[in-house]
């Protein structure tokens, strides 16, 4: 069912293009906002307008938002290469392989952690949306490493709160181009959708607060191996912050990585791995920590650099 909303243009959007303003106001991509405008779903002061028209503060908008796409229903489907690191009555910790998302999403036809666990007969918490049962945090499809999934309802609520309150110790290793200066530091820069509306995220004034700590572990001729500690968990956070430092993750072409270096190292995705995960057990109330070795493709790239 469509949703029509009427509201004035905020002062902060004075002079913006109409598609950019709609995207900012409703959390849409620029592409999606332009589609809605093109379909006649936006009136500006009572008249249809073009996506490139500039808006004035206080101008009256009437926006008809189409119904959101229906989320896919999870199906039980085995995920080759997904390893169970730990399992008890409340949680299951998995080592996620490349090319696997956390849970089914609109438009994704590949495997997911959730569906792989269902195929293994694991009973997961049913709190939250049906297509995300038990999922308390996510990794990008091409980021490998550790994820914890809730099996009990208590674990789900405790872990969701722990991630929200930033008490979970999330450590990643990433291989970045060049050598960050200083070798150890913090990136504290807000993240939001990229203004281009092309699926990227970016450091944007007024975005959501995002904090990334990095520490150089090993320096090579053309790249550096960093350990990353996240305080926040924004979409693409490490990738965006490293790109903002002008040291993108090796192989991350979406955020400006050099394809020549990635090809030489045999890296066909961003070199990014969730290497350690620590938190208080949700029912046993004791600290637990899990670790994951590098997958073969990431390990091979580091060995090539060491040989240089």
UniProtKB/TrEMBL annotation:
It catalyses: a uridine in RNA = a pseudouridine in RNA. GO terms for molecular function: catalytic activity, acting on RNA; pseudouridine synthase activity; RNA binding. Gene3D superfamilies: Pseudouridine synthase, RNA-binding S4 domain. GO terms for biological process: enzyme-directed rRNA pseudouridine synthesis. Residues 90-244 form the Pseudouridine synthase RsuA/RluA-like domain. Its EC number is 5.4.99.-. InterPro entries: PsdUridine_synth_cat_dom_sf, PsdUridine_synth_RluA-like_CS, PsdUridine_synth_RluC/D, PsdUridine_synth_RsuA/RluA, RluA_PseudoU_synthase, S4_RNA-bd_sf. Keywords: Isomerase. The active site is at residue 140. The keyword Isomerase applies. It is an enzyme of class 5 (isomerase). Responsible for synthesis of pseudouridine from uracil. Belongs to the pseudouridine synthase RluA family. This is Pseudouridine synthase. It comes from Nocardiopsis eucommiae.
């Amino acid at each position: 069912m469509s949703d029509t909303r009427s509201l004035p243009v905020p002062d902060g959007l004075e002079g913006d293009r109409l598609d950019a303003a709609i995207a900012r106001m409703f959390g849409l991509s620029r592409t999606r906002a332009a589609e809605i405008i093109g379909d006649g779903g936006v009136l500006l002061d009572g008249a249809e307008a073009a996506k490139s028209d500039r808006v004035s503060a206080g101008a009256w908008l009437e926006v008809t938002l189409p119904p959101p796409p229906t989320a896919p229903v999870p199906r039980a489907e085995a995920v080759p290469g997904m390893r169970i690191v730990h399992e008890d009555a409340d949680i299951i910790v998995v080592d996620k392989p490349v090319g696997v998302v956390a849970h089914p999403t609109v438009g994704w036809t590949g495997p997911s952690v959730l569906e792989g666990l269902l195929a293994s007969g694991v009973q997961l918490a049913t709190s939250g949306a049906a297509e995300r049962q038990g999922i308390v945090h996510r990794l990008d499809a091409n980021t490998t490493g550790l994820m914890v999934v809730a099996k009990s309802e208590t674990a789900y609520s405790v872990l969701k709160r722990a991630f929200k309150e930033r008490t979970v110790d999330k450590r990643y290793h990433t291989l970045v181009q060049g050598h960050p200066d200083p070798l150890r530091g913090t990136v504290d820069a807000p993240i939001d959708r990229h203004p281009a509306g092309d699926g990227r995220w970016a450091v944007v004034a007024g975005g959501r607060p995002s904090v990334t700590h990095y520490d150089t572990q090993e320096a090579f001729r053309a790249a550096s191996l960093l350990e990353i500690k996240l305080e926040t968990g924004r979409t693409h956070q490490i990738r965006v912050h490293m790109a903002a430092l002008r040291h993108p993750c090796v192989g991350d072409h979406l955020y400006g990585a050099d394809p020549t270096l990635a090809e030489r190292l045999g890296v066909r995705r961003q070199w990014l791995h969730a290497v350690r995960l620590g938190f208080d057990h949700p029912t046993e109330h004791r600290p637990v920590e899990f670790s994951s070795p590098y997958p073969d493709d990431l390990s091979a790239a580091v060995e090539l650099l060491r040989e240089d």
